[in-house]
Amino acid sequence: MRPIASLAAGLLLGTVAATASAASPEPMLDYLEQNSDRYAQLAQSIWDKAELGYLETESSALLQQTLAQEGFAVEHGVADIPTAFIASYGTGGPVIALLAEFDALPGISQSVAPHREEIEGKNAGHACGHHLFGAGSTAAAVAIKRWLEDNDVPGTVRLYGTPAEEGGSGKVYMVRAGLFDDVDAVLVWHPADRNAADPATSLANKSAKFRFHGISSHAAVAPERGRSALDGVEAMNFMVNMMREHIPQESRVHYVITSGGSAPNVVPDFAEVFYYVRHPRAAELQKIWARVMAAAEGAASGTGTTVEAEVIHGNHSMLPNETLATVMHRRLEQVGGVEYDAAERGFAKQIAASIEGAEKLRGQESRVLPMEFVQGMGSTDVGDVSWQVPTVEMRAATWVPGTAPHTWQAIAAGGTSIGHKGMMVAAKTMALTAADLFQDPALVAAARAEFEERRGEDFDYEPLLGDRDPPLDYRR
To answer: Would you say the C-alpha torsion 471, 474, 475, 476 has a positive or negative sign?
Structure first.
């Protein structure tokens, strides 16, 4: 990796500062400040719906309606995904894109209370803050559109509505369909418990559902006639768990048994296990994946069952771009962090009491962390975008410091003004960063040059999920 805060990036910042005076981006900040309640309500509407991946019909429609009302041309149902869309404004280049997610997570719900309080009858929640993600990116896109229009700045702003990030790899199908081929740079953000804009990477990730088929029988009267599909699942899990000792330490393997039978006295003729495998490099991930596949086949052979695997999703790691991160970090420092009022401080204190070590991070929401290279341990389908277009991602403090994603604490804070304030930090930062890119061709060129260098001359993109169609029913 390149050294952080390179001299080239520093020189470019001086160019940006000089060029930006041609059309001040400050009106975008005024617009976002004046309309913060509007976008908070949009985010809250999506929070309330908490729709799962590829089923986000109402959430996607809300974002599309907002953008269409603001003069964007909206194309829906792109890449054969009903809830995916592209909203565009402007003509020619550069083409600067923002991403918007809006899917919730299954199996977890929470009210806005600062203690554990599930919502009866609701079994999904925005535990990763994608309601804020979608609404915040929409706010930024509208602010940029208005600024382009008011100042006659050439170029195109696009917002990509990207469904099913949580295990559905919606963006991968959009990349595969060539929808990013003419984009010059992608700006993206994610809810978090801190404010940071780093040249970061992530883990490549691949998943599949392994379905074992056996022969049912009475487990007491005629057990010899049965062949347990659950035995196949358990044998596979046992072998994969032994394999953990002999794979690179930065790898991650996890699974859940999604079907294991219905009654102890019936030998199950069907069982299913859902696996995720991760590694920083796609090539190494594929090697580990081959061993997991071999374990499944061996388990089936040893238990007298059969097995089939359906690949559900696959994501490349994030390709960092220091040039873009340096600009975004500078703009984030200008915007600053989140300031809690008295009520928010009281809420945050109660949330922090439920999280080990959170008290030590008090006040982190108001600070911008220094820029550094980050090896993230999560995975995202933004990774595939980043191998096609120079991409930068920032984090904004939408959660109480110390909060982990995929938790009830994240849902709770994300449904309050704490989450809304962090969302607007992200919207303002992305809008300012976009203005820099629109007004400095040298900056766009430098980001592309770094992108080409990091990707390498011989890079040939192959989706880790292969040629399968989008799994539109994977959350049903």
So the answer is: positive
